[in-house]
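INSTRUCTION: Work out how this chain folds

Fields: amino acid sequence; protein backbone structure tokens

Chain under study, with its fold:
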Amino acid sequence: MSTLAIDTIQGATAATSVDMSGVTSLQMPTGHVLQVLQGERLTMLSIASNSYTDVVTQAITPKFSTSKILIQCSGVANSDQNNACYFKVFRDSTEIGSGTGGDYYNVIGAVTTPTHSSGSGFDVKGVSIQYLDSPSTTSATTYRLKAAAYNGATNIGGRGGNNDIAVPTRITLMEIAG
């Protein structure tokens, strides 16, 4: 049989923070958000190449190797008539989340302008990309949203030849306890 003897229990008074610097092991409930970081581009980016170009990046240092990183990207893109804008997401230099069954292109997102589009460079379309990654590291990791143009020019965050619209392109990273 065990006996617990306590003379006094006193609660903390107006505690606003807890020093966790000495904690070497901590178990967080699965699914809890541990940190949120966001990167953004506030200006339009024009791309006239089928080589993938960084649009927006954000680094994160996961607190636990078992964590997952939820990547969310948003913005707008437009392309000239008969053109397409393709998106890929990279963890450092490794492509992640793209399709694998395409005959020509395996990407995580695309914006196309149909051949019957009236005018050139005025069809602005929303871009929304989500992917849940398992980086298995506690080292600093950089996520990159990249884009490439096919068959012409594409614009991320606005429309070509015109500065009347500017929409931020964002990448949000959420570390989720695994």
About this structure: Residues 46-176 form a domain with the Jelly Rolls fold (CATH 2.60.120.1340). The longest strand covers residues 68-79. The radius of gyration is 23 Å. The chain has no helices and eleven strands.
